[in-house]
Structures are given as structure tokens and as C-alpha cells.
Amino acid sequence: MSGNTWIVVLAGGVGSRFWPMSTPRRPKQLLPLLSEQPMLLDTLDRLTPVAPLHHALVLTNAELATAVRELLPDLPPENVIAEPRPAGTAAALTWAAHEIARRGSSDDVMISVHADWAIADVPGFQRALLDAADAARREHALVTVGIVPLRPDPGLGYIEPGAVVAEPLRRVSRFVEKPSVERATALIAAGGLWNSGIFAWRVGDLLAEVRALCPEVSGALDAHPDDLPAFFAAVTPVAIDTGVLERSGRVMVLPGAFGWSDVGTWAALRDVRPRDAEGNAVGGTAFLKDARANVVHAEGQTVVLYGVEDLVVVAQDGLTLVTTVDRARQLKPLLDALPAAIRVR
Predict the structure, then answer these.
(1) Range of the domain at 282
(2) Which of 126, 187, 246, 344 has the fewest CB atoms nearer than 10 Å to its CB?
(3) What tens digit of pLDDT does each residue of 251-269 get?
(4) Are residues 167 and 204 in the same domain?
(5) Over 60: is that where the pLDDT of 1 sits?
(6) What 3 state SS string does the chain have?
(7) Is residue 28's pLDDT more than 90?
């Protein structure tokens, strides 16, 4: 089939759910949360069998662009695309598709992933990406990989598969954003999948759908096709799901089961890191006695836990966070209450 395959990695987030480690200058994707290297490097390492490094684009924010280029010296510098302002995934992925078409052709396929996921079955993940790319070429479709759910998680979006195209490829009936536990349970019982944010499409097909369906972005692209700052200044921020996929009749889904996690909170590390015999997930130097089901992350310090369970302990640069696994899922009330001198380090 015609067209090269490209990888597009979204690495622009500056989220606070991994405070105190995560900061605007060192967000989650630049932290060594799953291995001894930053998550962005883990991501690119697992993608090299899918596409060569010179066919990988990393989309990040302008403040992180230098750090990303320094972290990835083998990646061509022009393959790090710095977004001047947060403008939503529709703008970011549209510009990536436009750039790929400019460098290659409208037949090239881009596979979009995020920089901060954990993947247990890497070969299965790679096969799923290649299958999605093949389906995108064959069907001229916008293809997403939906994760076979492990539980009714209200913190994730869901996909309702529709009519069969060619098993296991199906049309998308609709997207459901973060339903209640009860609704999520019903969606799973009916065959619903987690919305992973994995996408594959011919860049020409995406650009055609953007121009037909997404005025929030299309006008800016037509007006500023050679000016990235002007394009991002002119778009109306919107997510790719809302701006394009929910409006398109060309969206299809493949199921995936390869141990995907978006590693959304400190608590999630208990599921994606290796655990000891007592269920503790430890990163860094720690000693645990009569301790069970804790998450520990220590940088440059030693943590000792004795007789406790279900805690999250994060120690770094003279600051230590201690909370429960449950409360670690939502740190915003804490951050809102903290003095700036402690919150911003």
C-alpha cells in the first residue's frame, strides 16, 4: 500500500496530578516514572519498530521544546514542533498532518499517541498500531484503537462500536465522555471500549475532514498554512474528538488489549510498576517493614515505611508528600490550598 508511516507523539501537557515531581518545566512525560528514563523516551523506544525516528514528530509546548530536543538528540530538531499556546488536540494534530503532507504526501499515514502512557504488552501495542494504520489506508477512515476495559472507570472516555466493517474493525457509533460508574458498567456490557486517544489516518483524509467539519481549525489552516505561530493564534481551541471525530461519518475502531494505562495519578503506579510480595510499588531508595500496597517514589532521598498500607509517599528535594492512595487520585484541592512557595518549586 502507498504512503509512509509516521508517528506523532503528543507531549505538551503540564498537568499537576504528579505534584510535587511534576512541574511546568518538568511535566509527567519528562519524569522517570516507569523506568530509569523519562516516559517520553520509553514511548519513542517502543515506537521505533513502527516507524523510523526521522518519521516521528513530537508535539510539545514552547517552554518544553528545548528540554525535549536535549532529551532526544537523535531526533531531527525540526521534528520537535513547539506549540506557542495550548490550542487543543484538533489544532495540534491538524498541524502535524499538514506538516507530514508537506514533507511527504497526502497518502502518508500518521499514528498519534501520547507520551505518558504505560504499556505492558509492547509487541501487542505495536501490532495494534500497525493494524490501525493498515485499516486507515484500506478504508480511507479515521481509525482509533479502543481499549478492552478492565473495569468501569468513570475517569475515562468510552467508545460505542457500531456496524461491522470487517471483523474486528467496526464503525464508531458514538463517543461517551467520562460516564458514571453505572453508565460505564452498562457501556462495557454492551461492548463499549475505553477511548485511548490512539489514532491512525491518512493525513489527506484527516485534513479533508478538518476542512469539512471543523471551522474552529480549518480557517486558520487555510489562512496561515506556512506560519505556525499565526495558525495557533488563529484557531479556536477544541479537542480532536469534539471538533472532528464526533462530527465525522468516517470514524472506525479496532479493539486493543495490551495493558494500556494513561498513568493518570500517583495511585496508578501501583498497577503499572513492578510490586514486591506485599504489593508495594517502589521507585528509588526505600525500606519497608510490615507495609502493604503502598506507592513510594524517592529521588535523592531514602524513605522508610513501617506498619502502614495504602499510602502514597513522594520525596524529592527536601519536600515530602504523604497521602492515601484514594486521595492521591485528586490532588487539586491540596494544590489550591498550598502556599505558592511550596506549590511552585
Answers:
(1) 266-343
(2) 344
(3) 999 999 999 998 888 989 9
(4) yes
(5) no
(6) CCCCEEEEEECCCCCCCCCCCCECCECHHHCCCCCCCCHHHHHHHHHCCCCCHHHEEEEEECCCHHHHHHHCCCCCHHHEEEECCCCHHHHHHHHHHHHHHHHCCCCCEEEEEECCCEECCHHHHHHHHHHHHHHHHHHCCEEEEEECCCCCCCCCCEEEEEEEEECCEEEEEEEECCCCHHHHHHHHHCCCEEEEEEEEEEHHHHHHHHHHHCHHHHHHHHHCCCCHHHHHHHCCCCCHHHHCHHHCCCEEEEEECCCEECCCCHHHHHHHCCECCCCCEEEEEEEEECCECCEEEEEEEEEEEECCECEEEEEECCEEEEEECCHHHCCHHHHHHCCHHHHCC
(7) no
